[in-house]
Amino acid sequence: MGTKLLLPFRLIINFCFGAVATAIIGSAIIVIGIPKLLLPIPVVQRSISTAANTLFRVWGYAMSLMFRLTQPMRWHIEGDTLLHRDRWYMILCNHRSWVDILVLMHLACRYMPMPRFFLKQQLFWVPVIGLGCWTLDMPFMRRYSRDVIARKPHLQGKDIETTQRKCEKFRHIPTTVINFCEGTRFTPEKHREKQSPYQYLLPPKAGGTAFTLQTMGQQFDAILDITIVYPPSDRPTVWNLLTGQLRDVYVHVETLPVEQSLIGDYFQDAAYKKHFQDWLNRRWEVKDEKIKTTLAKIAERRS
């Protein structure tokens, strides 16, 4: 009963802390982004990007602190954690909740370069978020549908060319690119709808991951296959995080080499497409078994 009475206070404390930290650090990133917008000089822009990246890491630490601000959060991180902040990585991760992003931020600010996301072009015009992400050199992608390409054939491959040009900026700042390969958050309903062959995962979508490797494959030092597991009793919702009811997070990190066979033209090369789909499906089989093993260990500890 006493614990339930504390929930509103935990919610207020965590929400206010997260909102204030985001407002202050986000505003600072935008302020230093203004001269970057006005002075298109490579040396100046790289210096500003480095400063913005430092602020981004500070925000990551602030979000990490929020995990344990009002609750005894326990982290169970296993696998290849001997990573380096001065290298380039691509993450393959399962997706259960929006909390996953904060979990990856917690890992990044301690073990690896700060993450970048491929964003839709429309997000650039969102107040605060658009300019902040632009300052952090996050690529804004404009993907063309098959219908548009059929009407305007000259746009074929234009999205890849644009993204490759924007990703050139990553050569100067170590970066981690995140791919949630399932394309959406896992729910039992989606699992049944998609008739997933996996017990705890949705089928992975290979196109986005292959596109990332085609665009930046030569830049990455390694692929990080990250598996996030929450105990069945701890629902990984933002509400449970803010009210202090999310107590345990299990994370497994596996480092994979960026083999040349993983880099190719997914949309034009049928042989490569099949090879990459088979490779990603095998990774998902391993991930599914890892989740099963972790949940069994959790059940054994709590029995």
Describe this protein with a few key phrases.
303 residues; alpha/beta; Glycerol-3-phosphate (1)-acyltransferase; 6-stranded mixed beta sheet; two-stranded parallel ribbon
Secondary-structure-based class equals alpha/beta
Question: What does the average pLDDT come to?
Answer: 85
What string, H for helix and E for strand, traces the elements in order?
Answer: HHEEHEEHEHHEHHEHEH
The gyration radius over C-alpha positions equals: 20 Å
The fold-level CATH name is: Glycerol-3-phosphate (1)-acyltransferase
Transmembrane segments: 12-35
GO molecular function, one term: acyltransferase activity
Domain Phospholipid/glycerol acyltransferase: 89-231
Keywords: Acyltransferase, Membrane, Transferase, Transmembrane, Transmembrane helix
List the helices and strands and how they pair.
Layout: H1 2-38, H2 42-67, E1 74-79, E2 89-93, H3 99-111, E3 115-116, E4 119-120, H4 129-135, E5 140-141, H5 146-151, H6 158-167, E6 176-180, H7 188-193, H8 206-216, E7 222-229, H9 238-242, E8 248-256, H10 270-302
Parallel strand pairs: 1-8, 2-6, 2-7, 3-6, 4-5
Antiparallel strand pairs: 7-8
Give an overview of the whole structure:
By secondary structure, the chain is an alpha/beta fold. Helices cover 51% and strands 13% of the residues. The protein has helices at residues 2-38, 42-67, 99-111, 129-135, 146-151, 158-167, 188-193, 206-216, 238-242, 270-302; strands spanning 74-79, 89-93, 115-116, 119-120, 140-141, 176-180, 222-229, 248-256. Helix 1 (2-38) packs across helix 4 (129-135) and helix 6 packs across helix 8. 32% of the residues are buried. The mean pLDDT is 85. Residues 89-231 form the Phospholipid/glycerol acyltransferase domain. One of its GO terms (molecular function) is acyltransferase activity.
